[in-house]
Amino acid sequence: MDVDAVASKVLQSVGGAQNVVSSTLCMTRLRLALVDPDKVDQTALFDVPGVLGITKRGHSGIEVVFGPNAVHSVYDAVSQLCGTNGGVDTEDAPANQEHRLKVSVIRGSHGEEDVGTLVSSTLDADDEDDAHDEVDFLASLLADAEEEEDAGEPTGRPALLVVNGPNINMLGIREPDLYGSESFDTLLELCHTTAHEAGFARCTCFQSNHEGDIVDTIQDAYGVFDGIVINPAAYTHTSVALLDALRAVSIPTIEVHISRVDMREDFRQVSYLRSACLETIAGEGIQGYAHAIRSLADHLGDAREGGSPLTPHPHTGRG
Ligand SMILES: O=C1C[C@@](O)(C(=O)O)C[C@@H](O)[C@@H]1O
């Protein structure tokens, strides 16, 4: 990944360096506070190599998820282009910069010794198996980003958008008895890994606590993404606007819920979006997203084999 190019594309997509008030980073995300949030071109941001997801923050903040490896170098490059040093959220930032440089080494060299040492000192994994899984995941993200960047032309494989509604970013903290103890970042990793394995060329994850932002994202997906997996969260039970947005773009969509909504309060039994979705998957924890992604891949594959046209894809030429 050419980090300078990535940083410059990120800045262009958010309205230029002059639109950035401050940049900070945490373990996996670049956090930008903006002068004018309307200048963000979300579609362009989704297209930046290495971007795993986007989360809106309040009125004028945006978080761009790069994963624990790439985020540091992108942050440095962004800070340089903005002429700021930004700041580090010390709560969850790694202890020192040496570690992140080591992480980038694993992409090329998979010498067991290097990896073991590297991981035990950087990723805080509980045991060696976890550490190796984590390394494999990081390496696969880098490989994906590079593959996309190098290809620079249509792959013929579909692009996936994963949308999460309000409070899903609180996974792991939020009512763990209902939603499990895995974090939102773990969910993002799962979506990326599964999408890659299922044959998607690209997987972009978006989360917002605001209904209008989700409507905008679904509209912007038209002509850009071939399939959507959505957990509308509480908007499931209230939002005609999200239903209309899905109908407007008519992109094949699967609805997913972490908990068993059908066994909960009466008001959760209603889904305004269900009629615009191919399928609803509920009660499988975060693995429900993996199920939904695989099912969507099957559907898109069947649609192609059966000769039914996928959504036109003027942007990338896919579909
Ligand atoms: O926020 C959520 C999460 C949810 O969509 C689920 O994933 O189980 C179920 C919704 O009722 C709730 O408002």
Automatic annotation (TrEMBL):
Protein's pathway: Metabolic intermediate biosynthesis; chorismate biosynthesis; chorismate from D-erythrose 4-phosphate and phosphoenolpyruvate: step 3/7
Annotated GO molecular function terms are: 3-dehydroquinate dehydratase activity; kinase activity; protein-N(PI)-phosphohistidine-sugar phosphotransferase activity
Q: Where is this site: Transition state stabilizer?
A: 174
The keyword Transmembrane is annotated on this UniProt entry: no
- Alphabetical list of PROSITE patterns matching this protein: DEHYDROQUINASE_II, PTS_EIIB_TYPE_1, PTS_EIIB_TYPE_1_CYS
The question of whether Amino-acid biosynthesis is a record keyword is answered with yes
Which InterPro entries is this protein grouped with? DHquinase_II (IPR001874), DHquinase_II_CS (IPR018509), DHquinase_II_sf (IPR036441), Glu_permease_IIB (IPR036878), PTrfase_EIIB_Cys (IPR018113), PTS_IIB_1 (IPR001996)
Report domain PTS EIIB type-1 positions.
4-88
Cite the binding residues for substrate.
231, 237, 244, 258-259, 268
Q: Keyword annotations for this protein?
A: Amino-acid biosynthesis, Aromatic amino acid biosynthesis, Kinase, Lyase, Phosphotransferase system, Sugar transport, Transferase, Transport
**What GO terms in the biological process aspect are recorded for it?**
amino acid biosynthetic process; aromatic amino acid family biosynthetic process; chorismate biosynthetic process; phosphoenolpyruvate-dependent sugar phosphotransferase system; quinate catabolic process
Reactions catalysed according to its record: 3-dehydroquinate = 3-dehydroshikimate + H2O
UniProt EC number: 4.2.1.10
Q: Which residues form the active site?
A: 26 (phosphocysteine intermediate), 179 (proton acceptor), 257 (proton donor)
Q: NCBIfam families, alphabetically?
A: PRK05395.1-2 (NF003805), PRK05395.1-3 (NF003806), PRK05395.1-4 (NF003807)
**So what family is this one in?**
Belongs to the type-II 3-dehydroquinase family.
What does the subunit comment say?
A: Homododecamer.
Q: What does this protein do?
A: Catalyzes a trans-dehydration via an enolate intermediate.
Q: Which HAMAP family match?
A: AroQ (MF_00169)
Q: What protein name does the entry list?
A: 3-dehydroquinate dehydratase
What species is this protein from?
Answer: Olsenella profusa F0195
Gene symbol of the encoding locus: aroQ
